[in-house]
Structure formats: structure tokens, C-alpha cells
Amino acid sequence: MNKSNVKIGATLAALATTVALVVPAVQSQGAKTVKIDGSSTVFPITEAVAEDFQALKKGAVRVTVGVSGTGGGFEKFCSNNASVRTDISNASRPIKTEEINACKASKVEFIELPIAYDALTVVVNKANTKVSQLTVADLQKMWSKNSQNSGVKNWNQINSSFPANPFKLYGPGLDSGTYDYFKEVVIGKNNDIRSDFTPSEDDNVLVQGVSRDPNSIGYFGLAYYEENKDKLKAVAIINPDTKKPVLPSPTNVNNGSYKPLSRPIYIYINKASANKPEVKEFVDFYLKNAATLSREVGYVALPAGDYTKAQTRFANRQVGRVALRPGL
Prior knowledge:
It is a single chain. This protein is 37% helix and 21% strand. The chain is α/β, with parallel strands linked by helices. It folds into 2 domains: 3-117 and 265-315, 3-Layer(aba) Sandwich (D-Maltodextrin-Binding Protein, domain 2); 118-262, 3-Layer(aba) Sandwich (D-Maltodextrin-Binding Protein, domain 2). Strands 1, 2, 3, 4, 5, 7, 8, 9, 10 and 13 form a 10-stranded mixed β-sheet that branches. Strand 2, helix 2 and strand 3 form a beta-alpha-beta unit. It is elongated, with a radius of gyration of 20 Å. It starts with 7 loop residues before the first helix and ends in a 13-residue tail after the last helix.
């Protein structure tokens, strides 16, 4: 299957964010099941892996992939209810301390595996010819609660060269790791995102919103922009070190110039589940194919050595939050 032709947005539009998506190959009634939930950002890679793995297994294994957001996914992964608990959690950020504690309370040990890089992509409507680049300070002024309280609502309040039109904001919902990452990097840990934006865990809703409103702006993962280039315009972000505008791209993520809106993304494996043959085989397949499939769905593959280290970590069942290297 050519993953570059997968209409990720159309697939997600058919989903409720808390309902598991089944990506079936030919299935049999006695098929083993691998249960996955979590980040909409990680969904495209995991969906692609699941499709290929199920085809390989010819119905012997069924893989379900839910889209509850990173936080919602960890709630299931760390649940004390075994019928709710998932085998694998997709995450667009590292697991938080409170989520680690929830896992401990449920006696869930986890194996953390980075699988690719993502770049958060800021987008505007293609008809917006005035806005081609923004600084992090511009984004903060636009998105912060303080700005909402002080009446910042027009483009020209961000930059006097911008139109005197009110902007419309679209962004991931509060359960999304993408939201958490944007808030931390752009708004700051001690500040809040304004409340008058349109949130959704379904990135396709954000794509549709920005594509229909010439005064809108939004953000989501690079994969969704790559799927919708014909509808949206990516905004270059001024690198805080070089002061030069940089567009999101695999090259700019790998060379470190797309700062600060690029990040690693992860899957988390329940250690007990890893002892199930179907889960072990799925994760092994995932790590062997992550580089190829991440590129095919619009993400940035890790260096080969990182996948080797991740395979070793999984083989050794190394649990806990331990970075493979600085920044990962």
C-alpha cells in the first residue's frame, strides 16, 4: 500500500475521538488483539504499521487504534480497570509525573520508545498573503490568556503590517499532547492559552476550519499539513538563535534549524503486554519499519542508531522514563 495516498484527515473525520479505529486485514474470529490508543499526531504512523502488520499476519492478529489524545490515551494505558487498559499508548510528548504515578498505582510498568520526529506546523489560509512568518513572541501574543484579557483580537495587533481583521484561532484540544507541547514552548509553563479558540482532538476539523476562513490560524503536526498542502499555507517560524525564518520540513527538523516547534514522538508499551506474542511481534515489526513508514506519512525518521537503541531497550524490557540520548 502506498501510504502517501492515505487520506489521514478523511479517516479521522469518520472517527469519534474516544472510539477505537479498527484497521482490519482479513480477520478470523479467533484473532488475537493488540489494543492501542492515544495521540492523533502519532496515529498516522501507528495506523500504517497496523495495516501492514495485519496484512502480514493474514487475520491472525487484530490491531485496534483509538484516537483519544495523548492524555486520554494514558488514562486508558494506566487504568486500574483491566478491560479498559491498552497494550500500547501513542504519545506526542513524554509521559507526565502524574501519569507515571497513575501507572504505578495500577501496577503498570512501561517501556518508552521514541519512533520519529514531528514538527508542529503553524498554518494560515492560503488566501492570507500578508502572513508568511512569525516569531515565537508573535505566537505568544496571539494565543495567550493575557492577550485575550487585554483585548488582543486583530491581526494588526500582532504586527502593524498585518490586516486590521480579527483572527480566528484553531488548535488541538486540552487532552492533546500537541496542545501541551505548544503551551509549554510558546505560552510558557506558568501561563495559559486563551479560551476563545476552536479546539478539536481531530486534526481534520482544524484543517477544515483554517481552510474555510481567510482570517484564521491554527497549528497541528507536520503530517496533517503535508496531507493538506493544497488547502493551507505553512508559516515560517523565526529561529530564535539565527533570527532567520524557517519552514517546517524533514530537512530542517533533522538539522535542528526548525526551532522550537519540533519534537520526538513516542509509543509506550505495557511491559506485561510485551510478553504476549502478538504484542511483542507487533512492536518488533513497528521498530523495524518505523523509519520507512514515518517518512511515508509525512514525519521525520530518527537516525538509524536511535532505532537500534530502541530495539535493544524493548528486547531488554527496560522500563521507565530514560532518554536514549539528550533530547530524545
